[in-house]
Amino acid sequence: xxxxxxxxxxxxxxxxxxxxxxxxxxxxxxxxxxxxxxxxxxxxxxxxxxxxxxxxxxxxxxxxxxxxxxxxxxxxxxxxxxxxxxxxxxxxxxxxxxxxxxxxxxxxxxxxxxxxxxxxxxxxxxxxxxxxxxxxxxxxxxxxxxxxxxxxxxxxxxxxxxxxxxxxxxxxxxxxxxxxxxxxxxxxxxxxxxxxxxxxxxxxxxxxxxxxxxxxxxxxxxxxxxxxxxxxxxxxxxxxxxxxxxxxxxxxxxxxxxxxxxxxxxxxxxxxxxxxxxxxxxxxxxxxxxxxxxxxxxxxxxxxxxxxxxxxxxxxxxxxxxxxxxxxxxxxxxxxxxxxxxxxxxxxxxxxxxxxxxxxxxxxxxxxxxxxxxxxxxxxxxxxxxxxxxxxxxxxxxxxxxxxxxxxxxxxxxxxxxxxxxxxxxxxxxxxxxxxxxxxxxxxxxxxxxxxxxxxxxxxxxxxxxxxxxxxxxxxxxxxxxxxxxxxxxxxxxxxxxxxxxxxxxxxxxxxxxxxxxxxxxxxxxxxxxxxxxxxxxxxxxxxxxxxxxxxxxxxxxxxxxxxxxxxxxxxxxxxxxxxxxxxxxxxxxxxxxxxxxxxxxxxxxxxxxxxxxxxxxxxxxxxxxxxxxxxxxxxxxxxxxxxxxxxxxxxxxxxxxxxxxxxxxxxxxxxxxxxxxxxxxxxxxxxxxxxxxxxxxxxxxxxxxxxxxxxxxxxxxxxxxxxxxxxxxxxxxxxxxxxxxxxxxxxxxxxxxxxxxxxxxxxxxxxxxxxxxxxxxxxxxxxxxx
Amino acid sequence: xxxxxxxxxxxxxxxxxxxxxxxxxxxxxxxxxxxxxxxxxxxxxxxxxxxxxxxxxxxxxxxxxxxxxxxxxxxxxxxxxxxxxxxxxxxxxxxxxxxxxxxxxxxxxxxxxxxxxxxxxxxxxxxxxxxxxxxxxxxxxxxxxxxxxxxxxxxxxxxxxxxxxxxxxxxxxxxxxxxxxxxxxxxxxxxxxxxxxxxxxxxxxxxxxxxxxxxxxxxxxxxxxxxxxxxx
Amino acid sequence: xxxxxxxxxxxxxxxxxxxxxxxxxxxxxxxxxxxxxxxxxxxxxxxxxxxxxxxxxxxxxxxxxxxxxxxxxxxxxxxxxxx
Lengths: 787, 232, 83
Prior knowledge:
The complex is a heterotrimer. By secondary structure, chain B is α/β, with parallel strands linked by helices. Chain B has helices at residues 14-23, 66-76, 86-93, 150-158, 217-222, and strands at 2-7, 27-32, 43-46, 81-84, 100-102, 110-118, 134-141, 145-147, 162-167, 186-190, 196-199. Chain B is built from 5 helices and 11 strands; from the N terminus they run E-H-E-E-H-E-H-E-E-E-E-H-E-E-E-H. In chain B, strand 3, helix 2 and strand 4 form a beta-alpha-beta unit. Chain C has helices at 16-27, 50-65, 78-82, and strands spanning 2-9, 38-44, 71-76. Chains in contact: A-B, A-C, B-C. The interface between A and B is large, with 46 and 40 residues.
């Protein structure tokens, strides 16, 4: 049999790849085999464009128990606990069908976690959408803005639906907007679970003759060629791909979780893997591949939801909530009894065999016989041509009229990129599990471990605009920011997972971005001792030739030992807790001259939102001092010296200080806010001290605002200076009562003086305003998105 | 005291309820939905979650499970039963409590801390509280909008069967304090005999200062106080 | 025999979804005075007569598919619907 170029294209294969398949098999593949190769060699499953680059990343460290290559990474969290975590994208499905796309994204990452024997305890999401409001100047027409709003509603409702029903605490994440994500929304879902260190399970098929058992939902025709879809650009025809989108059932997944954990505890399970992208195909060849064994599958035994499915359809189906497990021979009945108890289907669909081949039988015939290695290790790897884009960075505008600082601050706080995301995270169950110490609304989430003596902190971060201007620096900044957000809770960052979202790698400029992003990420992860334990690469995020900014999203996990009494101990907050506290700034940043500050202002939220231009370069980073900063923050929190810590990230110092005042604890929304009377310290950067715009809105990631009892200032200054960090006192928090609080910042020749209630109204109402919602009234877009 | 926590398929706050019972110093045992065996428990908790996926209606399928027959008999004999969140929905569907829980008025799932005013200390789950006391604990639900017809609401008020109301921190009943559109800011009610209580908020998640509040413990401590005559 | 059951909130119960849909339709220029959203079930019953099927469907609708506190239902046999 020989295949036409058209038939190959339908499977996402090139003529060269077809030739390689023939060489690997030593014969012509049949149709089923060609489909299996097509899906396993897709970018989504094979990482063929990125795999060679990803080898540069640091993956080992003192706490790493499992690096990349398994269903998820794992680290030693202490007290005999392993923390299993990973981030994964579900971008393409979320564009085609936002609610189900996002829901199944959450479902998929949760399965990756409990497949390892870990009970999921936290999820976070990194979301990016196109602008919510029409903007002729930015080329966002009203229908595009309406579509973006519907996508946001659908994605958030989908995450809410799946995570809440499954029963896992959502600790937040990030929600950002840029015109590049119009038509290319990003939905990156992170999950974290806990297992006993010595009871981690792996996706390995061992023991010749052991039964291969299929558990969970029946197989239907859903999601066929989903992995191939995620490996293509979007066109106008993509809307017609709706049948490709899978429908999630979080209730079934919850049952699957309980049944799998119970089966694992019984000792009857040898290996297990979820059926995610490329379903039965990838789970069977990867489980065989990892253990050097083969699997014989009999498709007639696969539980089927639809009639007359072909072998190709069954092998490629991406029906959700399914797992493949290998049990110890003779213990099948124990496994069946557990799944029956939870009302789930389980069936022996094959056997482990020596020989390292995937052999598939259907209706009495052998329909595929492929060496596992040909599908996994021998999949093509491309060193695709890379070329830095020719055009130089845009020059700074010749001049502009700066609005008053107060007005600029109000507009920034109300902009969707900086406004409160309570409207989003209040749809997520954040307290289930009764271990949430820091809920969404802070830079990082903090979750207590069983036993109460330790906690985990986690954060997701990434800024596409920085990466547009300098992908290597943007990636370094993403790592540093996620680690710094974790460090602000007092935790020590120990490991990372990454989701790299880029455009079409067949374009040399995109391939160059990918190279730069990976290089920058590797550098920062090495410097900060946060090895990468796994993750995901999502390419082809392009619609009609329009690609996204390169957007690496980093998830960093940190460990925290609780001092004091576990039942009442709380980590440092992100907000200023009380009047009369000292507000200080600790800096790991190098000095900033006026020229640098102007170039870097071009990558800020201030430039994008207020000046509506982007130019120049992202902020600088001193990784050695950054590491010292994290050590300072952990030490200071451990000694219970700090009340709060927040880094000066997007929006600059003014936005950071405003959010310190406004992000009141969600656990006590009624507590009256404080104000603050502060002075911008001249010595921080003398060249910009007289320029309110640069002083207030420059994004300087090495600056962290810390609050403490005035008596603790001396000791904290000593801890900072001992580590080579700079220390400045800004002033005090204060309460004037009767809602008269103000944020006052005085600089050389300028001052900012804003009423806190006005700042609060702008910040709290920003997102609802952009969505066209008045308080509490659902819009039809919301109803449609949830339907 | 031996307290049973029912596990339905899809329950997901069962472990937290179990933990709260233990934290209150009592013995917790699991009760499986498919069995009618109550194992000699002295009180029963129907925990939160999405029993049977909440397909059809929240709590609608759970009420047909074998354990619910036993819960009905236990309640009829005066045994204390507490339904939290989905457990409250199940008690309403099963007819053990009046009314129903509709979709939240804002159409969105709502997860945030709320304040509750204790309206009566005369139930087995509020005996350790004072009438008028304000408790803080989280809500997390999509369908917690309490509805009952006018006559039922009047009877609930007349018979002092509204157990908790959403209020602000100072205990004032305001529209802004109502997270879901519930009639009369009702967060929890009891039956005429006062031994069956249901509420939407999650006391089992407010059991330590580290979690932002330990006010929820009062419900679990209440059970252990010498029980006054039920129905008084 | 196939029987259809329609379930909707009672008229006395507020239906915010229906209201939001109506508002959207009005903005698009459709003169719709009211929208109520509900659920629809198709039951395949092994009943001998239409009347037996109707009776069984009514029992199922009353006891399981609807909650009489908030919802009302309507049972429709296909012949009746096509008339």
